[in-house]
């Protein structure tokens, strides 16, 4: 059971134009217990249209506020999020399953985007361009793109909201947000805190329920000028197709198949630590987690032994249990996919180098698999679970070819102490995010996004706010006597 100091943060409702709409149309399941933790409305196309209208109406005022005024409201929201870290973490763990320590970390991480873009709001500027005509001036002006549709996943239900919403609000946009129907309550709690911060009604609207009807209405609306989505490549491509008739601006953070390359000259301890951080964070349910661990022959056996020892020491249990390192997977479909990948790998010659555990149905057994090969499902598909397959390689060229041999291009990691190799490999890896000697790549200050089938656009950093701005060329004539 959640232990909340402020029970008002737990809202079983949707939010349209400042009105909280309560209906028990759908159930939300606690993945650790399989029990119902609450309900939510299943919003209709008509209600989605109401939310779009509310955002359009609210934007008339929101976009005209000074950058400093919007920044101040965002900072108040940031402060309230941090003040309520424990309650937000309790809600997040109950609906998503990750350990409380990770949930607290996600709250801080999510808040960092609000602060970063509050600061960036004050730095939105333009330019005066020298005109070829003496009597003219040309101004390049930055303006908000308009009403934005935000569709977020279940694996980081706080951070994925703030990473998208904060830059939009800073730019002067208003939002219609569709959180995952697995994890709606974190988004709703953030909305409660945004109201307390003074963000006006209609600026943030939260639609709960099944995605199909809500999504089709958002993508078809000519009022919605931008869509930002994090999720699978399949759904991202479908949304892009639906947005094509209205030519919306798109930000798509899609699937990944991250390589994690360990060269012979790597710092073994650092490489193992990086693999633990990258692979087993949130039980492997992240789009940037190491999906293929490539280890050079000379260090292979030592790496496998050290990693297996660390994995065997992981504690699996409910997210709110003391000392849990890995919580439950999000649902039965996730368990089925993990099981299918493991069984396929073992049937094709992979070997398990970690001890087996007897776990409840909601949990996946963290493991290391050696002798992985390219014909296994886990080599080409995201497992999205705590399974670390080890692929042995001999040469640098072999590792790079295998790493790049995927339609995806989100994140890649590699470990080496050779400076020349660091630059060489870093430039040759075809990914939007490349990490050298670190397993952590997510910071508000850094651009986040992929290439190829991993998506379009960037979140975070200076680039993140540009995704919510349009440039207007303002030509001014008749300024001087002819």
Automatic annotation (TrEMBL):
SUPFAM superfamilies: ALDH-like. Residues 20-473 form the Aldehyde dehydrogenase domain. GO terms for biological process: gamma-aminobutyric acid catabolic process. GO terms for molecular function: succinate-semialdehyde dehydrogenase (NAD+) activity. Keywords: Oxidoreductase. The keyword Oxidoreductase applies. It comes from the Bacteria. Its EC number is 1.2.1.16. The active site is at residue 253. Belongs to the aldehyde dehydrogenase family. This is Succinate-semialdehyde dehydrogenase. The lineage of its organism: Bacteria, Pseudomonadati, Pseudomonadota, Alphaproteobacteria, Rhodobacterales.
């Amino acid at each position: 059971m959640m232990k909340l100091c402020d029970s008002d943060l737990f809202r079983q409702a949707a939010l349209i134009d400042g009105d909280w709409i309560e209906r028990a149309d759908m159930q939300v399941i606690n993945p650790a217990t399989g029990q119902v933790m609450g309900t939510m409305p299943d919003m209709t196309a008509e209600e989605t249209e109401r939310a779009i209208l509310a955002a359009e109406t609210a934007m008339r005022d929101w976009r005209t506020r000074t950058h400093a005024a919007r920044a101040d409201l965002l900072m108040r929201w940031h402060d309230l999020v941090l003040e309520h870290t424990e309650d937000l973490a309790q809600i997040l763990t109950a609906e998503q399953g990750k350990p409380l320590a990770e949930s607290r970390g996600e709250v801080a991480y999510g808040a960092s985007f609000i602060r970063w873009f509050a600061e960036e709001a004050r730095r939105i500027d333009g330019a005066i361009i020298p005109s070829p005509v003496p009597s003219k001036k040309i101004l390049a002006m930055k303006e908000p793109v308009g009403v934005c549709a935000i569709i977020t996943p279940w694996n980081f239900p706080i951070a994925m909201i703030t990473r998208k919403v904060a830059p939009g609000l800073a730019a002067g946009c208003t939002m219609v947000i569709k959180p995952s129907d697995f994890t709606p309550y974190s988004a709703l709690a953030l909305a409660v805190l945004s109201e307390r911060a003074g963000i006006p009604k209609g600026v943030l609207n939260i639609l709960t329920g099944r995605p199909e009807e809500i999504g089709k209405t958002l993508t078809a609306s000519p009022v919605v000028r931008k869509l930002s989505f994090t999720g699978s490549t399949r759904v991202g491509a479908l949304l892009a197709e639906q947005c094509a008739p209205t030519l919306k601006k798109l930000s798509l953070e899609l699937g990944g198949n991250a390589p994690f390359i360990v060269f012979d000259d790597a710092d073994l301890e650092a490489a193992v630590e990086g693999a633990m951080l990258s692979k087993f964070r949130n039980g492997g349910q992240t789009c940037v987690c190491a999906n293929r661990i490539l280890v050079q022959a000379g260090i292979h056996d030592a790496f496998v032994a050290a990693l297996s020892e660390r994995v065997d020491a992981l504690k699996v249990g409910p997210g709110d249990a003391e000392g849990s390192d890995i919580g439950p997977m999000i649902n039965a479909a996730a368990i089925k996919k993990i099981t299918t990948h493991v069984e396929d790998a073992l049937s094709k010659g992979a070997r398990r180098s970690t001890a087996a555990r007897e776990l409840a149905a909601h949990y996946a057994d963290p493991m290391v698999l050696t002798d992985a090969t390219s014909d296994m499902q886990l080599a080409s598909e995201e497992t999205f679970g705590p399974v670390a397959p080890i692929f042995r390689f001999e040469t640098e060229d072999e590792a790079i070819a295998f790493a790049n041999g995927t339609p995806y291009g989100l994140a890649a990691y590699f470990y080496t102490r050779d400076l020349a190799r660091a630059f060489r490999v870093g430039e040759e890896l075809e990914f939007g995010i490349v990490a050298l000697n670190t397993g952590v790549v997510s910071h508000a200050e850094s651009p986040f996004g992929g290439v190829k089938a991993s998506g379009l656009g960037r979140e975070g950093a200076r680039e993140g706010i540009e995704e919510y701005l349009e440039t207007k060329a303002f030509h001014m004539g008749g300024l001087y006597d002819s």
